[in-house]
Specification:
alpha+beta; 11 helices; Ubiquitin-like (UB roll)
């Protein structure tokens, strides 16, 4: 205990003792049997209530000890400002002065933090009994809030306004003071890494005038503790197994303009991994195979992240064999003389487990069966961690939940497990108005009603209309994920689409219905029939090419088959896994349009640096050929814009020699190499950067007359950078791409952006 705290404690005891002695000054020291207890001075607190707090009753003998205890009990209630005990013969008289009642609580002088938030923090309500402790505690809480927000010079002064009828107004006068940020961050003891490298490893940042949206440049002692852990993790991931970061010192500058932070580092020796051994008390386990799971790279530098990931992978591998509860313990032995270390991993004895129960928590809206049918494991099955992991991924991919957590608990016996799935539901239905502007599509407006989880059944119903500078769409749709109670997805859609490319317009109206099913793990089949009518109109008077359908109305009856395999961890925002798709469309089942269109797509995502960096590779190829008829413009592919950044929408491929309109092509390919990460950025801002290169080509037409380079298959190549920003008003994306290889008739577009909002 600090010296001034000890002095205050002793002074407080003295004051309490003095108060009690003074309050009992009139009490006789001779024992008296109490014949009556009388309460005087009370107005709000009933006499019976006061007497209920007393440890003495009528008929008891008084003593200095009993009456002292009685006085202390009454003060402990915090109901009274003053209390005196008197004896009038055998009558005990309790004289009280009640504490006032709080009439109103006000906060004045605050700008940075609202009244509502501050009042919620102190939780001092009207009608509550006021005493000095209430004001002191509330003041301390308010100061803590301001310090957490970087205002260390904040002063809070409580004031009491006396009112009639023993009431008071409690007013907190606030002087917020300036916002004090981190002026400098330094390190002491670091030899292997520069100060700048270590600054990038921690969460706190030095204040800079351009970082006006940042929140991590405020002095926060809790964040500094987190920074210490991040620094240790940084060194442990680079071979420094003995590193210590004792503490961080933060000092307020003399002019109180900011804080100077210093981290004290003792790096120790950098170690390479000499040996990794695995010993198992579970019979039949291939320890040699498990040993190969842990990889430290070619240089063998010790990396705590690799060790932790390896231990998790070993646990998951054992989980796939039915062992739900396994202790996998590493023991690290360092050899400073050789700068090497040995890792010995022990797998404790365990029993095989079976799933006793799968339970779902917090799905207030979504039916249990909707989640359960996504599980690849049922009650009574042998425990299998891999199947559970895939099941969780399936549940996430539904898009109904903001978060999905899994916990494995012991069941009614050591051999039984309970799989508990806790979900955080999110909105799945909305009436939306979308407003946006794109450098490709210009202004856009959308209106829609969409419910992805109708009445918690997993069914999807939607109606939408959208329009932009290049496209107008109307769609009514209904999807049943488990048609006829089986693992079949059924859908029905009615649509109208109007697409404009330069001065050519294609209007298409029709309906489609289909069914899909999964035949193997992560493999999905879909068969879809479409009947539609389309009309192509060329508004340009300078066009010279023949599209084969200008001014004509054509009836299309087609069957589409899609085969896909998807192992991505999240189809909406993938970090790892791959996606493969084959799309075959055959038109000619009646109608006057006959063609075969083939499109192959693939994507692969791999996390690097422990998922802080995502490598993405994607590509697609397409080919369409006529079946007795020539392929017309509405049946061809278009390329550019979002497919190959650095080019405008439809900016790649053959063009009309007169109007320069894009006419599309029968053959196409495109691909992307991309790196996405938030390294170097504050995660709380929701900003990620990307570096990419795109490539592709589009060529071939059955109507080459009046077309520029109709069969030129030259590859186009571009490279660029981009930013993705998830904001409160919607997603924003910016990309800058430079064509590195193009043809003279292509339409480049260096800068592209999208911005949208939902009202």
């Amino acid at each position: 205990m600090r010296r001034h705290d000890l002095c205050g404690f002793i002074l407080g005891l003295f004051l309490v003792f003095t108060t009690i002695q003074s309050s009992m000054a009139q009490v006789s020291q001779d024992p008296v049997r109490i014949s009556e207890i009388r309460v005087d001075g009370n107005r709000r607190v009933a006499a019976g209530t006061v007497q209920s707090y007393l440890p003495v009753r009528v008929g008891d003998l008084t003593s200095p000890g009993s009456l002292s205890n009685a006085l202390a009990r009454l003060y402990d209630t915090n109901l009274f400002q003053d209390i005196k005990l008197d004896m009038d013969g055998s009558v005990l008289i309790v004289r009280v002065v009640e504490n006032p009642i709080i009439n109103r609580v006000n906060i004045e002088g605050n700008d940075a933090i609202s009244d509502e938030r501050l009042l919620e923090i102190i939780d001092v309500q009207p009608r509550r009994v006021y005493n000095q402790k209430v004001a002191i505690d509330a003041t301390r809480q308010l100061i803590d809030v301001y310090r957490a927000g970087g205002r260390f010079a904040a002063v809070i002064e409580p004031k009491i306004i006396q009112l009639d009828e023993n009431r008071v107004d409690l007013v907190f006068e606030v002087n917020e003071g300036p916002l004090i940020k981190i002026n400098s961050i330094a390190f002491s003891g670091n030899k292997s890494f520069s100060d700048q490298a270590l600054r990038q490893a921690i969460a706190s940042r030095e204040a800079r005038w351009w970082a006006f949206l940042a929140s991590n440049d405020k002095y926060d002692e809790g964040r500094l503790d987190y920074d210490v852990r991040l620094l240790r993790q940084f060194y442990l991931a680079r071979g420094f197994a003995d590193v210590t970061v004792d503490h961080a010192r933060g000092g307020l500058l003399p002019d109180r303009s900011g804080f100077a932070i210093t981290f004290l580092v003792n790096e120790g020796i950098r170690y390479q991994v000499s040996t990794v051994s695995v010993a198992s008390e579970i019979s039949g386990v291939d320890t040699d195979e498990l040993q190969q799971i842990i990889e430290f790279g070619d240089d063998k530098w010790y990396d705590v992240r690799a060790l932790e990931q390896g231990l998790l992978d070993i646990s998951n591998r054992l989980g796939s064999f039915g062992y739900a509860f396994v202790n996998v313990t590493p023991e690290i032995k360092t050899n400073p003389e050789t700068a090497t270390l040995d890792i010995a991993i022990t797998i404790d004895k365990a029993r095989r487990n079976f799933v006793e129960r799968i339970e779902f928590v917090d799905n207030a809206r979504t039916m249990d069966r909707v989640i359960r049918r996504e599980f690849e494991i049922v009650e009574g099955d042998a425990y299998n961690q891999l199947k559970i992991d895939r099941s969780v991924r399936n549940v996430r991919n539904l898009g109904y939940f903001r978060d999905v957590k899994i916990a494995t608990l012991q069941g009614s016996s050591p051999e039984q497990t309970i799989t508990r799935v806790t979900v955080e539901e999110q909105s799945t239905g909305d009436f939306s108005i979308g407003l946006g502007y794109s450098s490709l599509d210009k202004s856009s407006v959308s209106l829609g009603v969409n419910e992805r989880n109708f009445l918690g059944t997993g069914r999807r119903a939607s109606a939408s209309i959208s329009t932009s500078g290049t496209e107008t769409n109307f769609n009514l749709g209904l999807t049943e994920p488990y048609l006829l109670g089986r693992d079949l997805t059924g859908s029905f859609d009615v649509f109208n689409t109007k697409t404009k490319s330069d001065e050519t317009t294609i209007n298409q109206t029709g309906f489609s219905f289909g069914v899909g099913f999964s035949a193997a793990r992560d493999v999905f089949h879909r068969l879809n029939y479409e009947l539609s009518q389309s009309k192509t109109t060329a508004a340009s008077t300078t066009a010279t090419s023949i599209t084969g359908e200008a001014g004509e109305t054509r009836l299309r009856s087609s069957l589409k088959y899609v085969l896909s395999k998807d192992t991505r961890d999240n189809r909406f925002d993938p970090n790892e896994g791959y996606y493969l798709e084959m799309n075959e469309t055959l038109a000619g089942f009646g109608g006057d349009v006959k063609f075969l269109r083939t499109k192959l797509s693939a994507a692969y995502y791999k996390p690097l640096l422990f998922k802080s960096v995502i490598l993405g590779v994607s590509g697609k190829i397409g080919y369409v050929t006529g079946l007795g008829d020539k392929v017309t413009q509405s049946q061809r592919f278009n390329l550019g814009g979002r497919d190959v950044r650095g080019f405008g929408s439809g900016g790649i491929g053959p063009r009309d020699t007169g109007s320069s309109d894009a006419v599309g092509g029968n053959k196409m390919y495109a691909g992307t190499f991309e790196v996405v990460s938030n390294l170097g950025l504050d995660k709380d801002t929701g900003v990620r950067w990307t570096v990419f290169t795109d490539f592709g080509s589009l060529w071939g037409t059955d109507y080459p007359s009046g077309v520029t380079k109709p069969n030129a298959a030259n590859m186009r190549l571009s490279a660029g950078v981009g930013i993705f920003w998830s904001t409160a008003i919607g997603p924003l994306s910016f990309s800058w791409a430079k064509p590195l290889s193009k043809m003279a008739h292509d339409t480049p577009k260096t800068f592209q952006f999208n911005i949208g909002t939902r009202l």
